[in-house]
Design brief:
The chain has 490 residues and is an alpha/beta fold. 43% of the residues lie in helices and 14% in strands. The protein has helices at 19-24, 31-42, 62-68, 82-85, 89-104, 114-118, 120-125, 137-148, 194-203, 238-252, 270-281, 299-307, 322-327, 334-346, 364-377, 394-399, 425-453, 460-467, 469-488; strands spanning 6-10, 46-49, 72-76, 108-112, 130-132, 160-164, 167-170, 208-211, 214-215, 234-235, 256-259, 287-291, 310-318, 350-357, 381-386. The strands form three sheets. It has a seven-stranded mixed sheet with strand order 2-1-3-4-5-6-7, sandwiched between helices. Helix 11 packs parallel to helix 12, helix 17 packs across helix 18 (460-467) and helix 17 packs antiparallel against helix 19. The longest helix is centred in the last third of the chain and has 29 residues, at 425-453. The chain is globular, with a radius of gyration of 23 Å. The N and C termini lie far apart (65 Å).
Length: 490
C-alpha cells in the first residue's frame, strides 16, 4: 500500500532530441507536470520528479525508478508549451521507451499528453496502463485513489483510456476545471533550476521562467489543436497570479516571464486589474505573451500591458492574404494586424509575428502579400512555419486523405509539408530561408535610414543592425534566386 502512495512524475520532452531548440538554449520547465505533482502532493501522495529536459536518453530515469520503487510512474507532459503540442516523433518514441522501462520494473504507468490524447491506442499498446484524455489533474487523482483502494473497475472515471480484454476503451470526456485558483501553485521546489538558468544566461543573457494565467482558447482557427484544455477559456484571478510571481521572484530571482497562455488577458478588465496590482506590489516585471490582433486595438488595454512590464507580444498574424486568413477561420483582418502592430510600437511593446505558409490553396500572390506585410510592418521577430495538420482539427480532416505514414514532424525544425499543395516541400523550405533573409534585410535598411536621418544619435545596436545590410541584402538576392529556380521547376 505504501508503494501505491508513491508517484514518480516525468515528462517526454528531451531538449537534446530537438536540435533547433537545443541550439537556441532557452528551455522552460514543464509547467503542466509541476501543477499535477503539486496537486497530488496536496492529497498526501509522496511525489518525486525526474526532469528529462536535459537528459540524454529514456534510460536516464531507470536508476530513480529502481531506487524509489514507485507504485505509479506518470509521464505528464506540459500542455502549456507549444513544443509538446507539436507531438514530435522523437519525443513519442522516448515516451514509449519509458513506458516499457517503468512497466518492466513493476510500476502502474499513466500517461497524459497532447500526443497520447490523440494516439491513446498506440500508447496503450506500447506499455501504458492508462492514458488520461484532456485536462488531467482531477482524472489522475481519481484514478490513483481508485487503484489504491483496490477497485479494478475504472469505467466510471471520466477522461480515461485503458485496455479491457486487450481492447482499447475510452470513457466520456471530463469537463474542464473552471476554478483555476483552486489548484495549488506549481511544485517549483521539485525542479533543479540551475541548468535552466545557466542555459538562458549563456544563450540569451537573461533568465526567463514560465507562468500560466489561463487555460483554453475560445477562438476557432481550424488548424489549431486543443487536445488538453479545449475551446473553453478559464482564467486565474490576477491576485492568484501575483502571489505566484512574488513566490518565484523570492525563490529564483528570474529576470523575465513568459506568460504561456494561448491567449493572455482575454477576460474583460483582467489586464487593467493585473497592471494595478503589479504597481501596488512594487513588482518589476519584464514579460512576453501570446495574443491576437483583434484583442490589441484598444489604447488603454495596450497601455496597461506596457505599464505592467509587457515587452513582447507574439500574435498569430499567419498570412498577409485576407483570403487565406478567412480560409483558416482566423477571425482577424489584415487591417487589425496593422493597427495592433502600430499601437504596440507606440507603447514600446515589441510586436512579433507567427507566420504560416502552405495552407491549402495558397498561391504565389498570397505568399507575396505575406512578405509585403512583414516588410511593411517590420515586427520585432518572426516565427515561420508551414501548415501542420494535427488530429482533432478541421484542417486535419481536409488533408488527411493526402497524409501517408508520416503525420508528425521528428523535431521542431523539420518543417516538412506532409500533404500535396501548390508548391513542393522543397519550395517551402527555401521560402523559409528567403523570407528570413528578406525580413532582416528590410530591418537593416530601416535602421540604416534612421541612422542617416539622425547621425548624431547613434547607438551600438542600431549601428550593428544597419551594418548587417551589407550581409542580408546580397543574401536575400541569392535565396530569392534559389526560390525562383524551384518555382520554375514545378
Amino acid at each position: 500500500m505504501e508503494q501505491l502512495n508513491n508517484i514518480l512524475f516525468t515528462h517526454s520532452y528531451f531538449l537534446r532530441f530537438d536540435p533547433k531548440q537545443w541550439a537556441i538554449g532557452q528551455p522552460y520547465a514543464p509547467l503542466g507536470t509541476l501543477y499535477a505533482a503539486s496537486n497530488m502532493r496536496m492529497y498526501d501522495y509522496q511525489v518525486s520528479f525526474f526532469d528529462n529536459m536535459f537528459s540524454h536518453s529514456a534510460n536516464d530515469v531507470v536508476p530513480l525508478i529502481e531506487k524509489l520503487k514507485p507504485g505509479f510512474f506518470v509521464i505528464y507532459d506540459d500542455g502549456f508549451n507549444y513544443l509538446t503540442k507539436m507531438c514530435l516523433t522523437n519525443m513519442r518514441e522516448a515516451a514509449f521507451d519509458m513506458c516499457k522501462l517503468a512497466k518492466q520494473r513493476g510500476c502502474t504507468v499513466i500517461v497524459s499528453s497532447s500526443d497520447s490524447t490523440d494516439r491513446y491506442k498506440e500508447y496503450l499498446q506500447e506499455g501504458a496502463d492508462y492514458v488520461i484524455i484532456g485536462e488531467a489533474e482531477q482524472t489522475l487523482l481519481e484514478l490513483t485513489n481508485t487503484i489504491k483502494n483496490g477497485v479494478t473497475d475504472v469505467s466510471n472515471i471520466q477522461g480515461l483510456a485503458y485496455h479491457q480484454n486487450d481492447f482499447p476503451l475510452k470513457t466520456p470526456a471530463r469537463p474542464v476545471l473552471k476554478d483555476l485558483d483552486s489548484l495549488p501553485l506549481p511544485a517549483w521546489d521539485l525542479v533543479d533550476i540551475t541548468p535552466y538558468r545557466e542555459s538562458w544566461l549563456s544563450h540569451a543573457g537573461y533568465f526567463s521562467m514560465n507562468v500560466g494565467t489561463t487555460r483554453g482558447c475560445p477562438f476557432k482557427c481550424n488548424w489549431c489543436a486543443k487536445p488538453i484544455y479545449g475551446n473553453r477559456y478559464n482564467s486565474r484571478s490576477p491576485q492568484n497570479v501575483i502571489k505566484e510571481l512574488k513566490l518565484m521572484k523570492q525563490m529564483f530571482n528570474m529576470d523575465h516571464i513568459w506568460f504561456c497562455d494561448d491567449i493572455f488577458g482575454l477576460k474583460p478588465g483582467w489586464v487593467k486589474e493585473f497592471a494595478a496590482l503589479v504597481k501596488k506590489e512594487g513588482l518589476k516585471l519584464r514579460y512576453k505573451i501570446q495574443s491576437r490582433a483583434d484583442l490589441l486595438l484598444d489604447n488603454e488595454e495596450v497601455l496597461a500591458m506596457a505599464s505592467s512590464g509587457c515587452e513582447n507580444v507574439w500574435i498569430g498574424a499567419e498570412s498577409g492574404s485576407q483570403r487565406i486568413l478567412d480560409a483558416m477561420d482566423k477571425g482577424t483582418t489584415i487591417e487589425q494586424i496593422g493597427t495592433a502592430t502600430k499601437l504596440m510600437k507606440k507603447h514600446d511593446i515589441k510586436p512579433s509575428f507567427f507566420i504560416q505558409f502552405g495552407y491549402p490553396g495558397e498561391t504565389r500572390e498570397d505568399i507575396g502579400l505575406t512578405i509585403s506585410m512583414i516588410n511593411d510592418l517590420l515586427p520585432h521577430e518572426i516565427g515561420i512555419s508551414v501548415s501542420y495538420p494535427l488530429p482533432g482539427t478541421l484542417f486535419f480532416e481536409k488533408v488527411k486523405a493526402d497524409l501517408l505514414q508520416k503525420t508528425n514532424w521528428t523535431d521542431s525544425d523539420e518543417m516538412a509539408l506532409m500533404f500535396k499543395n501548390t508548391f513542393t516541400p522543397a519550395y517551402y523550405k527555401q521560402l523559409h530561408r528567403y523570407v528570413h533573409q528578406n525580413y532582416h534585410a528590410h530591418l537593416a535598411k530601416y535602421n540604416l535610414l534612421k541612422l542617416l536621418k539622425d547621425p548624431f544619435k547613434p547607438n551600438v545596436k542600431r549601428l550593428r543592425k544597419a551594418a548587417s545590410f551589407l550581409y542580408h541584402a546580397p543574401a536575400t538576392l541569392i535565396e530569392g534566386f534559389k526560390l525562383d529556380k524551384l518555382e520554375k521547376t514545378i
